Amino acid sequence: MLKAVLFDMDGVLFDSMPNHAYAWSHAMTQFGLEMTAYEAYLHEGRTGSGTINILAQRYWGRDATEEELERIYAAKAEVFNTLPEPKPMPGALEALTAAKELGCMIVLVTGSAQTSLLQRLEEHYPGFFRQELMVTGFDVKRGKPDPEPYLMGLQKAGIKAEEAVVVENAPLGVESAHRAGIFTIAANTGPLEDSLLKEAGADIVVPGLMDVARLFQK
Ligand code: CA
């Protein structure tokens, strides 16, 4: 019996990943860390410091200091904020509506701690999200691909893994949901190969959110 659908935000509800990928690759380059946009997609969902330290280890052979982490993350946010506002993902409203019509709770599980995007949820998807059913970057310690964010989502909804479905778009997010024991639909809205999402544990891979809506309408 399906009781809740847990939605990721970036790359699922908002078409925000092109901006994140661009901002990461440009900010990292300022610090001598080469990161392609494609690699930014591979690391999508990881915490900011986790992402920075993968590059710091590769190029500097050590973790970044707290000060470096702050400076690089601030540079990323600065580039990100110059970019046009991400648009709602085509089909996301239909997927949310279909999930709600099934009688499901809608739960948000995002690594993002970007208050602007969280505020925009209510603007674009009014009435779907409630503060007490949101897990954000402010809540979690370990972040995706650890199962912690999705386990916290189940806990907030007061349900078991088998009563939920996750909608994700990124390999690390899929891994997090899969390790939490939840049936995971991957909407492949970015440039990565479907096989990466399947290997991460996706139960179904579809091209976009309109396809997710159709799954819920059946
Ligand atoms: Ca995502």
Detailed description of the structure:
Helices cover 48% and strands 11% of the residues. By secondary structure, it is an alpha/beta fold. It folds into two domains: 4-16 and 86-217, Rossmann fold (3-Layer(aba) Sandwich); 17-82, Orthogonal Bundle (DNA polymerase, domain 1), CATH 1.10.150.240. The protein has a six-stranded parallel beta sheet, sandwiched between helices. The longest helix is centred in the middle third of the chain and has 17 residues, at 66-82. The protein is globular. The two termini are 14 Å apart. The site of calcium ion has 9 residues, from loops.
Task: Give short descriptive properties of this protein.
218 residues, alpha/beta, Rossmann fold, DNA polymerase, domain 1, 2 domains, six-stranded parallel β-sheet, 10 helices, 6 strands, 48% helix, globular, binds calcium ion
